[in-house]
Amino acid sequence: QVQLVESGGGLVQAGGSLRLSCASSGRIISGATMGWFRQAPGTEREFVAAIRWAGGAPYYADSVKGRFTISRDIAKNTMYLQMNSLKPEDTAVYYCAASTMLAWDRAPERGRYNYWGQGTQVAISS
Prior knowledge:
0% of the residues lie in helices and 47% in strands. The chain has no helices and 11 strands. The chain starts with a strand and ends with a strand.
């Protein structure tokens, strides 16, 4: 069983940076896809970024491309989201997710992920 725990959220000013972490309590299989999603109040949970645990080019939402970087440390069973040039519209609860069987072109579909963390709050002040 995989349990995911996010950390690293907080309050920063616009233009600042944060790094989120997602630690897994269980081993992540090589065929897994890991993703970051976010949900602002009154909105649906939206895709941010995804990475294949085995490696390869990541997948980013257009809204974060060039500002956010997703990565993973296999030895630590941990995924990261480096967020730079933060904007007030990035304010949301950020969730990490894992899918053990996911076609790569389906990576933005939240319904395809079978493990979720509890979320970490990110707030950006203007």
